[in-house]
Amino acid sequence: MPTPKFPESDNAITRRDFFNWVVVGWAGFAAAMGGFLTAIGRLFFPNVTFEPPQQFKAGFPSEYAVNKVDERFKKRYGVWVVRNERGIYVLSTVCTHLGCTPNWLEGEAKFKCPCHGSGFYSTGINFEGPAPRPLERYKIGLSEDGQVSIDKNFKFQFEKGQWNDPNSFLELA
Amino acid sequence: MASFKEFSESITKSQAWKSIFRHGAPNNARNRVLVVLMNVFLHLHPIRMKKSGVRMSFTWCMGGLTFFLFMVETVTGVLLMFYYRPTAEFAYMDIIALREHVPIGIMREVHRWGAHSMVITVWLHMFRVFLTGSYKPPREFNWGIGVILLALTLLLSFTGYLLPWDQLAIWAITVGSNMARATPFLGHEGPGASLINSLMGFDVVHAGSDARFALLAGRLVGEATLLRFYVLHCIFIPLTASVLMAIHFWRVRKDGGISGPL
CB of B28 within 8 A of CB of B236? Predict the structure, then answer.
């Protein structure tokens, strides 16, 4: 009795071709999954956050009294605006020890962190407690309407010599 | 009046009973093996083990206790979820309500103390495995799974820490998540971030795009962080840990039972 055979046809696919196409198929599937997972990774970075903007206007220079720490923008934007004899600079309210928010103590003329007791002068220089470096400063300038403009996208660190950068200090005559 | 034997046989010979327990009573070696093999939970365990392998002085019971505490956390956690809403408006008040207005209001404390205990027992379990040399071949893979489970336990504690939404919670997560700033390449203050940025020619890795941002859903701990941590705490990490625990227990059996020499 002859062994039954599958009918041959012109478009019959060889075993080797079949497995090659299987490899192509799996590669395509893997690539699609890779793209999908990458897109899912993007899901964790929303296009809009409902945080205060990084750039904002902070009133006119004349509003700031000499040698005073202005706390108006502390809660919303996380900055102190400080005026000295020469001009204005903006300090970050993030303690350089572990990231808490220090308080400005007017009577003792210092920033004092409630978490671990770090202390900073009104310049932002650290002088007590565990903080390893001074508070950071943010970019400050004058906008076209004459208001102080602050940009938290740019920070200036004392220990890197960046406080000499003209953008870190608003010179006032 | 039917005797007790007739009564019990009417149960054990019923169709319902026999459909659940397809083997006979465990009164011989074969059936005792089947008790373990035919049960989806028990089959993760060894069929037989050396007497010394389960000696208290050898195991400290720490792995089992950790699993027990995980079950406690699951049950109490689900109970808490019936009342807790992960929004800035309600979270703290719900925590207070759980203590003040809800019957058996101790449930949150049980969850909290269970969490502390679980961290302790996980460490002691790891310490025991180290002391007994149970990380050595062929158990290296299971040690690796265990290290991931340790990390997941700590992450469960970390994500749960934020949920009360009080000052302690917010500042603890603020401080704790600052570590993510220093993630190599993925954190904006980490090693390699400035290299990537200079190679790309613009700031790819910055405070609004780095690992910390992905964790907090923002530059600061906020309402989006609360929701993100809630989902991680209640769904993602427990599910991942459950899958890994199944592998962990299965491998204990496959790799020659609990601790001790092979």
Answer: no
Q: What's the CA gap between B45 and B36, in Å, rounded? A: 8
Tell me whether residues A153 and B218 touch, CB distance under 8 A. Answer: no
Instruction: Determine the Cα–Cα distance for residues B183 and B195; give it in Å rounded to an integer.
Output: 13
pLDDT, tens digit, 9 for 90 and up, residues B113-136: 999 999 999 999 999 999 988 898
Output the domain CATH number for residue A163.
2.102.10.10
The CATH number assigned to the domain holding B150 equals 1.20.810.10
CA dist A44 and B218 (Å) reads 10
pLDDT digits (tens, 9 = 90+) for B8-31: 889 888 999 999 888 888 899 999
> Residue B92: phi, psi to the nearest 5?
-65, -45
CA B53 from chain center: how many Å?
A: 24
Interface contact flag, A100 B174, Cβ < 8 Å: yes
Task: Tell me which residues of chain B, numbers 213 to 242, contact chain A at a CB-CB cutoff of 8 Å.
Answer: 213-214, 217-220, 222-224
Residues in chain A, total: 173
The gap between the terminal CA atoms of chain B, to the nearest Å, is: 55
ipTM, two decimals, is 0.71
B24 assigned to some structural domain: no
State both tokens at A5: 């055979």
Q: Report the residue of chain B nearest A53, measured CA to CA.
A: B219
